[in-house]
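step: validate -> pass
step: tokenize input -> pass
step: predict -> running
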Amino acid sequence: QDAKKVICLTNDYAKLINAKYSVLEKNIIVIPNGVENKFFIDKHISVKEEYNILFVGRLVAQKNLLRLIEIASLLKKRQIIFYIIGDGEKRKEIEELIKKKKLMNFILLGTKKGKELIDYYKNADVFILTSDYEGMPLTILEAMATGTPIISSDIKGVREFIGSDGILIKHSLPKIFAREIIKLIEDKELRKYFSKKGRKKAEQ
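step: predict -> pass
step: emit ->
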């Protein structure tokens, strides 16, 4: 309340700050995240025999990787591989659950940076985010810049930014995530549509 200015990443969080702390609207500025130019690459959208679903982020409770594992288990009989980039406190628990469910389509890669990270985005057919809450994840911008279609939980911080430029899952039910993944990978033109829309949003 004593700050001359309060910077928020999204309008949703600006409203939250205003409601929670009675900060004057004129003192709140919205400045969204931006993404580095190196992420703007050309992606080839095609029909494939095997599809790659990419998650990039910390392996922490907030990201709800247990939900992502459940989604992978629903799709393990299909030619779909989940690539998980990142590390964190939930890694051991995730590894144990992968082993318990006998998942061969859920691959933990650890931390990746630079060109190696960009190559994973380039080869991804879908970017997925199963978080319970977020601010404005930079990984969403990175995925959009690389032309990777996005499927995400319909949550504050993500909802406003993705809008109609990706697929938002209400209630974050694994079966709905799985259904939308199948719909997206089976429709090349739909992937092209979200690829172009996301890229344009990242450029803004």
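step: describe -> The two ends are 31 Å apart (CA to CA).
step: cleanup -> pass
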